[in-house]
From TrEMBL:
It is found in: Cytoplasm. Residues 1-20 are annotated as: Disordered. Keywords: 4Fe-4S, Chaperone, Cytoplasm, Heme, Iron, Iron-sulfur, Metal-binding, S-adenosyl-L-methionine. This is Heme chaperone HemW. Gene3D superfamilies: Aldolase class I. CDD domains: Radical_SAM. SMART domains: Elp3. InterPro entries: Aldolase_TIM (IPR013785), Coproporphyrinogen-III_oxidase (IPR034505), Elp3/MiaA/NifB-like_rSAM (IPR006638), HemW-like (IPR004559), rSAM (IPR007197), rSAM_sf (IPR058240). Probably acts as a heme chaperone, transferring heme to an unknown acceptor. Binds one molecule of heme per monomer, possibly covalently. Binds 1 [4Fe-4S] cluster. The cluster is coordinated with 3 cysteines and an exchangeable S-adenosyl-L-methionine. Belongs to the anaerobic coproporphyrinogen-III oxidase family. HemW subfamily. It comes from the Bacteria. Its main location: cytoplasm. Residues 24-267 form the Radical SAM core domain.
Amino acid sequence: MPGVLPEGEPVPTDGSLPPTARRAVGARGFGVYVHVPFCASRCGYCDFNTYTASELGGGASRETYADTVLAELRLAARVLGDTPPPRVDTVFVGGGTPTLLPADDLARILDAVDRTWGLAADAEVTTEANPESVTPASLKTLRAAGYTRISLGMQSAAPGVLAVLDRTHSAGRATAAAVEARDAGFDHVNLDLIYGTPGERAEDFAASLDQVVAAGADHVSAYALIVEEGTRLAARMRRGELPYPSDDVAADRYLAAEAALDAAGFSWYEVSNWARTPQARCRHNLLYWAGGDWWGLGPGAHSHVGGVRWWNVKHPGGYAARLAAGESPGLAREVLTADEAHMEDVMLRLRLASGLPLTVLDPAGRAGADRARAAGLLDGAAYAQGRAVLTLRGRLLADAVVRDLLP
């Protein structure tokens, strides 16, 4: 089941923000995230805020969901009022499975964002999709509506691995959908992979990488399997039906991904993300990693505007009820302190290939960076130019390096 939201101070009923936050909106770019919480079935590893039809209960439905999101968008416009963002640089529709909604509903949501705040002329507009939830016709409708990028949940090309993860699509469907997206005119196509699943062989992951490259995707995200408490996969492991993931195997898979993708012309730009060209990098995620602002629409969605972060109530029924009553769906919020903002800045920017300016570190953090460079975890040439950039070995130990820079 979905994980637990953090605690925080109450969000005002009208959703209002401190004047300092509204004055700063868009200083580092502005994006919109739309959460679509519906799935046809629940994958065994997933603890995202998603609901199948049997889990949904009353007060929410796919049929009325787009209208509910538009109600929150109208509230957001009132909150920002006379200090709207200069433009919307990126839109990302995630889930769940956004493409369980009719393509026309996704088009309506994007059109409303444009009419509310204005899309930049070169805006990046992404939707996530499960491979079995799109067709050539729906992809053409989305592209015509202004979606420029699609992110397909492939996870693996091995039928046995897909079965362990409780994925319902066939082994070849994800790459076929990638080709269909290209044919529909999408500028950029991402394929998501998960590695380290129990039972996955080295040759299974190699085949997945080969198929990603052959499908013509220009972006790949590859993440080690994380076993979240409360999921079916965690229960199976506790019962001894499956072994727990191996850190050594995960490291081997990561090195295999780097070697195969580098040979195919991809370059890493974030620890778990590779792109064929700079233009193929996910600008919406870069907005997050660079500390930009975004408004998150939908149940459980998180937002960040001018140093204030808040999150909506989780269940679609409660979300819809609050908006129907004219209230903000925000559950709680926090105002980041200078120390918290610094910590997040170091944690996120160090994961980027562009690295972290050494000038942002205090003396203790700089001493930690010196140790990391001496240990071969930070690139020496970049360090000499005043930046902390992870080496390949440093990427494998990125969390440890972050801890050393934040004593």
